[in-house]
Amino acid sequence: MPSSLIDVLARHREDVDFPCPPVELPGLGTLAGVLDQVPDPRRIRGRRYRIGSLLALCLLAVLSGAKSVTAIARFAADSDIALRTRLGLTRATPDTTTLGRLLARLDGDALDDAIGTWLAHDARDPADEPGDTLVGLAVDGKAVRGSRTSDNRAVYLLAAALHAIGTVIAQRQIPAKSNEIPAFAPLLDRIDLHGTVVTADALHTQRAHAEHVIAAGGHYLLVVKGNQKKLRKQLKKLPWQQIPLQDRTTSSGHGRREVRRLKVCTVEPGLRFPHAVQAMEIKRRRVNRRTGKVQTKTLYAVTSLTPVQANPAQLAQLIQNHWSVEALHHTRDVTYGEDSSRVRTGTAPRAMATMRNLAIGLMRQAGWSNIAAATDYYRSRPEHATALLDLTA
User: Fold this and answer.
1) Sign of CA dihedral 272, 276, 279, 280
2) For residues 361 and 119, what is the distance between their CA atoms, to the nearest angstrom?
3) Displacement of CA 316 from its chain's centroid (Å)
4) What is the pLDDT of residues 106-119, one digit of tens each?
């Protein structure tokens, strides 16, 4: 058997038919190399499996819909010898204890950094010059509600996801007795922000955050709410009545119809926020189709983008696309049952969340829009899941 995981995983995909056209991704050898380079927490003596082989097995199982370590071990036991050989697992099949101990002791930051960098490699095309396409990057947090830390709290993760395909390219765990705010800068430090617009909810509308994004070469678009009372008051006083409507979008889904209206105002120096160039007023009117109930809400936002860099339609699209990260979190909860998961030991809850991010990112890049349908497909065709990982550039 070849000694390198890259060699044992290499295979051709000419005869594999996908239900949707896959895009070109870095080859599985590249991903295998990334997984094999994650720091191995196990003692050298007694190791029976390469860490890259075990992590690749976990990923294939999650691609097939596995929701727990037990389900991953069951997937391994049910897999055929050809698949295990490609993963370098010919000696024996790893059991639940082996997999659980590994995931519980992994360096979560190292795993997230390695996988996030790999996913971002071909998933983004940042622009440096005004007028080129800007890349949206949504920052949002999520609690893994079924998990528990040493102080009996749920694991809380802050993620940065690309707008276009909802792919997480960076993630950090929020320390106990803290919140998302101190984790914002460390989360973005490993990402090249040139040509990137960072979007976030009102919690991250902080002056230090804006300064950090601008210093890193990026732009921001941030919602302003009650945590910035003086800034919100200043925005409300802008002459919105005199500004014509500049964008209107309509969407339907989940039993409701929503109309969003946007006005944009170029702000003069003196606005109570660093590097703010444009302010926005967003009015949302939502109608419940079943009850007929109407809800109207007015939001304000600020951005460092100039009118040349982003027109009203582009600003409206960035605001709307920010919620792609919420859709990702919804998929993890509904399709993978993340909030009801009882994986609790050590870093295992975070590692499983990272594997879900990676699986969803791969499916999105392969052209899938329905993740539940994708997991059903790969559950019955594990060789196709292997082929999905083996796409070569």
Assistant:
1) negative
2) 7
3) 21
4) 999 999 998 888 88
